[in-house]
Structure formats: structure tokens, C-alpha cells
Amino acid sequence: xxxxxxxxxxxxxxxxLTAAAGLLRQGIGTEVxxxxxxxxxxxTGGGFMLWHNAFLSLRRIGLDEAVATDSxxxxxxxxxxxxxxxxxxxxxxxxxxxxxxxxxxxxxxxxHRVLTEAVGEHRIRLGARxxxxxxxxxxxxAHFADGSTAHGDVLIGADGLRSTVRAVMRRGSEPPxxxxxxxxxxxxxxxxxxxxxxxxxxxxxxxxxxxxxxxCRLNENEVYWDAITSDRAARTIDTVRQPRGVALARAYRDWxxxxxxxxxxxxxxxxxxVSIHDRPPGGGWAHGRVVLIGDAAHPMTxxxxxxxxxxxxxxxxxxxxxxxxxxxxxxxxxxxxxxxRRARTADMVTTSWRIGTxxxxxxxxxxxxxDLLMYAFFDSVARSQSYSLMLDxxxxxxxVLPVARAxxxxxxx
Length: 413
What we know:
By secondary structure, the protein is of the alpha+beta class. The chain has a domain at 6-72 and 107-176 and 279-363: FAD/NAD(P)-binding domain, CATH 3.50.50.60. The protein has helices at 14-25, 52-60, 64-69, 93-99, 108-119, 164-169, 231-234, 244-251, 259-264, 307-322, 330-358, 364-377, 381-390; strands at 6-10, 29-34, 47-50, 72-73, 76-81, 86-91, 104-107, 124-126, 130-136, 139-144, 149-152, 154-157, 178-190, 201-206, 211-217, 222-230, 272-278, 286-287, 290-292, 395-396, 399-400. The strands form 5 sheets. A 7-stranded mixed β-sheet has the order 6-5-14-15-16-13-17. A 6-stranded mixed β-sheet has the order 8-2-1-12-19-18. A hairpin with a 4-residue loop joins β5 and β6 (86-91). α1 packs parallel to α5 (108-119), α1 runs parallel beside α10 (307-322) and α2 (52-60) packs parallel to α10 (307-322). The longest helix has 29 residues, at 330-358. The radius of gyration is 21 Å and the shape is globular. The two termini are 39 Å apart.
């Protein structure tokens, strides 16, 4: 039985809230601190995919059904070219049956709501901007910009790509995040109609000129989409003299429908440009009573749609280990957590980065070659390798991540 009494979680994003929910399930008192001042600002971003492995991890803390209830189950992942040619179609029903968990599309706000309800709003302190922390034999103390402090037995840094906890741990001696060379223009469009965008298929289009376009239906009225543009392509997208929607519609005017209809149905203020970054894989997530998870530890690009999934996995693994920890072995447990998670997340970061480089191709001959390779290998080799990576088996001191050995289908963005 654990003798940890209090945990401090810095960051109320997906990783932080999942960790808090897991800690409370282990009977550990928990408080979450979030720099953003209002709940609405926690819900920025549109929709995303949550794959089987994330649902299997959520099941371990009793939240998989609540998340799945307000999600749309994906049955197909379809790759196409910018001419509309189908390059591959991955059937997701078989791996869903085999591993016992779905792949779903959902609003980011949906997942935040479920996690917040599991933690309890009274345990989340907003407007608490961390400035540093100190630790000694009696515990760890978090220091905030308003002069307040909080004391606990362990501090979990889940404060994102530009983590303050990470910066303090590294004493400021670390390169900035690595820019991937492209921007994702993310939005949710109000667009009813199964004939326009069918429910249950995630569409992933690869084009010339450093452009991609991803979309899927979130519910009967809404469609989530991402327009991904390389820096070179973005130079032709004039959002200074034109509204974003107009500029993007022009950039994708030659692409097949319903892309034009999706962009046209989107409110201007709903389109959010996000510059994509990660960090090269590396260690050093744990120091004494302090540990990093999620984007603070292993940020990755969007190409495997595993940023949220890996944050959830890390949070669930960590809290399971802390539930068995004593104060005497806490530092060793945190180091063991890092050892258990480092190789798996490094594989995700590296693979996602490599996939992203395929989207930077501009010339028509190279794009045609890429499409030919996708047509030849994505329904077989790529599908198998993708699922092998996603549902790989990793150990964390006797607690096994939920895993199934899948033989068909696979994930994407």
C-alpha cells in the first residue's frame, strides 16, 4: 500500500488530468495547478483521433466508457492523393475486436470534460503559473507567480511542450523544441450530411506542393479537419490580406470535394494555425521527487495521432507505479517509470517525425513516387508496422500496458 499522501500536478491538459484521475483512484490526495486563468482557455483546439491504446489505458482508470460515449467510432482510415485516388484503406473493425477497444474521433473539449469531472473542479486551481520548485527530505514545494506555494510528496510536470517544470529541472540549459517545418490549420466545421462526409471514416489526403488535408465526422452536424502546409507552401497562403478561410480555400481549390465545402462551412474564428514541434528523444524525465509526463517529457508531431495517447499511457503507467510506492523508494520508482516509458515514446517520436517529412515533398515527380509507394505498401507493410508500434507491449514494474497483438489495420494521424 502506498504511503504517498499528496501529489502536485502541474498542468491541466490531457496528461495532467489523466494523472490526477489515476492518482485519486490510487487513494493519493492530488491537486492540479494550471497557468491559464479560465476553464474555456483549456479547451483550445478542435478534434482529434484517440486510438485503441489510449482507450485501453483509460480503461485501467475506469474512464474509457465515458470517453467513448461522446466519441465517434472510426471503422476505416483512408489514404488518398490530391487527385482523389485511393492509395490505401485500413479496416479498423478487426483490431477493435482483437484488442477490445475502439479507435474514435472526438472533440478535445469532450475528453477534457470527462477528465475534469473525474478529478473534480475543486481540485484544479486555475491561474496558478509555476515559477519554480524546491525539494528536500520532507517533500517538494511548488512556487507560483502570485507568491503562493504548495507542498506535496511528489510533483508531476504535465505542463506541455515548453514546460516550466522541465526548464527548472534542466536549469535552463536545453535547446528549444524542434520545429518540424509545417503548420496545421485546425478547425471544426458545421457541415451536416452523410453524403458529404460519411461517419466512421478518417480521410487522410497527401498532395503536391507540401500540402496535406485530414478530415472526419465528429457527429451528425460537425466535421473536424486539419490543413497541413509546409513552410514553402505557407508562403503562398496570404492570411494578412485575406481571411484564413479564403486563403486556405484558394490553396486547396484544385483538391477534390468535399474539401472546398468543408473549408467554406467553417467560421473564420474557428481556424487555428498551430506550428508543429517536437523534441528529439532523450531521457532525464525524473529528478528526486519530480517527474515529467506527456509533452513535457516526450512531445511528438501529429502524424501518428499519438500525442494524446502517449500522454494518457504515461499518466496511467506512472500513477499505477506510484500507487505501489513508498516515500523511501519514490525517487527509484520515478526513475523506473522513465526507464519503462522511454523506448516506446522514442519510437513514437521518431516514426511520427519521419512520416511528417513525406509531407514536405513539393515536386510532382517525387509526390507521384510517394503516392506509388503508399499504394504498394500502406495496406500491408505500413499497416502492420503501425499497429505493431501502437500496441507494443511494455512493462512497468509488473503492470503491463493494455496490449493486443494485432495483425490487420493501423493508425494514422
